[in-house]
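// run 5 | inverse folding | seed 20
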């Protein structure tokens, strides 16, 4: 089991769009294993490769007993609205209500390049959208507006100095 250290807000890798995976080899298998091992710690729902410092388009998820990963994911369908608290491993100590689609479908491939699709509602839909945002170099706080944004920025300013100093 390899749990990889996380990258935090302020690290440029989180703001750089990830590149598509083109080599389906042992290195990709090892990356996916690390993503799965790292996301399965308690309190975690999703993890994009750039959150562990790898700029490849892949993420893992562990939501409501569903665990998996997608390589080269594309968000292909959304529907409805779902408002609820959202947080991010790379922005510790900050959470905010964020409007997302109630339903989301992601398509991509597995470690062998075979097509896969993951779809879900509620928190799984939130996770799929959150992780595909990461792969485009976006953080969930970027889309917050008004009082939600102000509250999140206050939390960030009050975060432990190691995190706050990176912003």
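// decoded
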């Amino acid at each position: 089991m390899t749990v990889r250290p996380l990258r935090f807000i302020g690290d440029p890798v989180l703001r750089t769009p990830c590149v598509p995976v083109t080599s389906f080899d042992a290195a990709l298998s090892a990356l996916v294993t690390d993503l799965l091992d790292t996301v399965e710690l308690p309190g975690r729902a999703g993890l994009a490769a750039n959150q562990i410092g790898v700029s490849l388009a892949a993420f893992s998820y562990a939501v409501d007993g569903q665990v998996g990963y997608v390589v080269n994911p594309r968000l292909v369908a959304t529907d409805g609205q779902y408002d609820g608290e959202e947080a991010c491993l790379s922005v510790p100590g900050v959470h905010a209500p964020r409007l997302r689609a109630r339903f989301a479908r992601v398509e991509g491939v597995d470690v062998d390049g075979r097509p896969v699709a993951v779809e879900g509602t509620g928190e799984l839909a939130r996770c799929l959208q959150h992780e595909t945002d990461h792969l485009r170099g976006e953080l969930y706080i970027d889309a917050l507006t008004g009082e939600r944004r102000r509250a999140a920025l206050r939390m960030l300013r009050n975060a432990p100095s190691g995190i706050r100093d990176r912003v």
